[in-house]
Amino acid sequence: MEFPQIDNTAEYVEFMQKNFPNKKIGKMPKSAKDIELAVRMEMENTAPHLLQRIINPKPEDTLPADVLNRYRQNQLWVDDIPIYRQAGFSGLAANMQRDVEVAEKMILDKKIAESKAKNDAVANFHENRPKGMQHMPPLSQEQIMAARERWGITNQPTWDKGQD
C-alpha cells in the first residue's frame, strides 16, 4: 500500500516570499540542517506545522524515553511542550500551546463569571434589603428608658440644666 506524498513546496515558497521577500529561494529543504537559523526561527513562530513536515522528526531519535512513552500513548503533558518544540515537533507543540491558552481562557472566564455572580448577589441584597429601622421590631418601653438613661437623655430642656 502506498501512502500519498504531501508536497510542501508551494507552502514553503509562499512562506519564503511572504517573510523573506528579498531572499533568493533555494532548494526545498529536506531536514533542519538545510534551513538557515533565521528562516527556521521565523518558521517556528509563524508556520510551525510546515517546519515539522519539512523536518519530519523521528520520535525515537529525538524524544527522551519518558516523553516518547507518553507520545506513543497519546498522553500529552503541558510540561513537554518545550521538549517537543526542541525535538522538531513544532506543529504539535503549537497545537498543544493553543489548547493550553484556550483552557486558561475558559478557566479565567469561569472565575470571572463566578465573581460577577457573587458581586451581583451582594449588590442585589443591598439594593433590596429594608432601609433604616423599618425591618426591626419596635422597642419596648423598658428598652427605650434604659437607652435614655445610658446615654444621659432626660426630658428636661437643655437650657434648664443649670437651674437645678
Report on this structure.
59% of the residues lie in helices and 0% in strands. Helix 2 crosses helix 3. It is mainly alpha-helical.
Brief overview:
With about 160 residues, the chain is mainly alpha-helical. Helix content is about 60%, strand content about 0%. It starts with 8 loop residues before the first helix and ends in a 13-residue tail after the last helix.
What keyword list fits this structure?
164 residues; 8 helices; rod-shaped
SSE layout and pairings?
Blueprint (H helix, E strand, L loop, with lengths): L8 H11 L17 H10 L1 H8 L3 H4 L2 H8 L8 H6 L3 H39 L12 H11 L13
Helix pairs in contact: 2-3, 3-7
Main sheet properties: none
**What global shape is seen?**
rod-shaped
- Mean pLDDT over the residues: 88
Count all strands and give the number: 0
Task: Return the string of H and E elements.
Answer: HHHHHHHH
| Residue windows where pLDDT falls under 50 for at least 5 positions | none
